[in-house]
Tyrosine-type recombinase/integrase (Iocasia fonsfrigidae), 46 residues
Amino acid sequence: MLESGVDLRYIQELLGHQSSKMTEIYTHVSSTSINKIKNSLDDIID
């Protein structure tokens, strides 16, 4: 859900967690998603 763009707070509510910290423990982002993040410094270095 997180990788599909669902806000972490909605996931927290769905899971019934009182704390967002607890939700963060159970949510993981795949390396594929991490690799899609554009680093703004790449434009400066190129």
